[in-house]
Every structure is written in C-alpha cells, then in structure tokens.
Design goal:
About 30% of the residues lie in helices and about 30% in strands. By secondary structure, it is an alpha+beta fold. The chain has one domain: 4-Layer Sandwich (Phosphatase 2c, domain 1), CATH 3.60.40. Helix 4 packs antiparallel against helix 5. The longest helix is centred in the middle third of the chain and has 30 residues.
Length: about 240
C-alpha cells in the first residue's frame, strides 16, 4: 500500500489569525501494516481564542495516535475499531472539559469543530463534531462521509463551549484506490463537489506535490468567490 499526503492551510484574505489546526500521520506498524490518520479542527471564529481550542484538540489527537493507538495493535480488526470508538468517545469528553476549563479560568468562551479519520488496511473509522467535513473520492465519484452538525451557519455542537458533544462516528471500507479530504468550512463552502473531485481524485494525485498544487488551486478558486474564512484541507491518497 502506498500513501501520498499533503496539508494546505491559509489565514485567508479577511481574517487576522488562522484558527484552523490540522494533522496527518502515516506510520508502519508490524501487525496492522501501514496506517494513516488525518484531523482537521476549525476554532470557532465568533469566540475568543478559537486557535487555542483547535490546537489543543489536534495535539490531543496526536498524543492519542502515538500513545493509545500503539497499545491496540494486537487487537483483531473488529475489536480494534471497537476499541478506537470507545477511546475516541472518552477522549472527546476529556478535550471538551480541558477547553472549557481553559476558558473558565480566563473568562472567555472558545470551541472547535473536529473531523478525524483513521485508516487501517482497507477499513476506516471517522469522528465528526461540527461542520468540518471529510470527503471520500474514488476514481469515479466523490462522497461526503460526514454530516454537518449545523443549521445555517450556526453549529449545533462543538468541542469546548457546551456540554460534552455526542460525536458522529462512522465506519467503512475502501473498495479501491481512494483520496480522503478533510477540510474546514472555509474550503468547502464556495466549492462544488465536482470541482473537488476533478482536482483530487486518485488519478490526479500522482505525487504529494501534485496534491498540494491542486489544493492551492482550489483555495484560489474559493478566494475568487469571496470566501472570507480561514481555509484548510488535509488530503490522503491511498493506493491499495
């Protein structure tokens, strides 16, 4: 299995700070083979210190990848995914509490979305809180794997500014070569799915540099359509 990856993030044309945070990890494990992990968090723009919330969330997920996931390597496929789901639900509660305490001690409100996907072999499990998105691109089509937890531009739930969120957790399987795109709303809001597909479908992702160039082109397209928010896209292309 071959994995190509890139992250592109930009403060945008109107904002002074980039409140998005992102992460990609690709590792070789003895029993599980090559595994990939992608996370995008979008700090809430209307709240103070959104960049702190998104960064705290991403760092917590990075620690989970290195520490907790490593302890699960001896589990069979189904038991592994069960263990990951239990671990993620517990971790989301902890991150939520940590961010709330940070805000309480400073008299501010802060929060973040979170979209994360773990690939193990041909299987994946994803987590979603808020309106960041994860897309799955095959050679023929694009599919949004997450459901937006928002009404209009108002989030129904996020990590940090409310009671412990109830994350959307979905499991699935890759049927063939695939690209995963995790992104903040600044990326997807002004773009059509077919435009994302044409740029980042597996056959267009020849190298990681090609993927990055395609992401930059999509950013330019969003700005031309007057996107004002921070923009982040993290892409993984997997050849099975």
């Amino acid at each position: 299995m071959k994995v190509k990856a890139c992250i592109n993030t930009d403060v945008g044309k109107k904002r002074k700070e980039n409140q998005d945070s992102s992460l990609i990890k690709v590792a070789n494990s003895g029993k599980l083979g090559r595994i990939s992990f992608v996370v995008v968090c979008d700090g809430m723009g209307g709240l103070s210190k959104g960049e702190v919330a998104s960064c705290k969330a991403v760092r917590a997920m990075e620690s989970w990848f290195h520490e907790e996931l490593a302890l699960m390597q001896d589990l069979s496929d189904d038991k592994l995914m069960d263990a990951v789901e239990r671990s993620w639900r517990r971790l989301i509660g902890k991150i939520n509490g940590d961010i709330k305490r940070y805000g309480k001690h400073r008299g501010i409100s802060l929060g973040t979305t979170m979209a994360a996907l773990l690939q193990v072999g041909r299987k994946y499990i994803l987590l979603n809180v808020g309106d960041s998105r994860i897309y799955l691109l095959s050679r023929r089509e694009i599919k949004q794997l997450t459901q937006d937890q928002s009404v209009g531009n108002v989030l129904i739930q996020c990590v940090g500014s409310s009671k412990a969120p109830d994350p959307e957790i979905v499991r699935g399987e890759f049927k063939s070569d695939s690209t995963i795109v995790a992104c903040s709303d600044g990326f997807w809001r002004k773009l059509e799915e077919k435009e994302i597909f044409r740029a980042l479908c597996p056959q267009m992702c020849v190298t990681s540099e090609d993927m990055l160039d395609q992401c930059r082109s999509l950013f330019d397209m969003a700005w031309e359509r007057e996107e004002k928010d921070n923009i982040t896209a993290a892409a993984l292309c997997m050849e099975f």
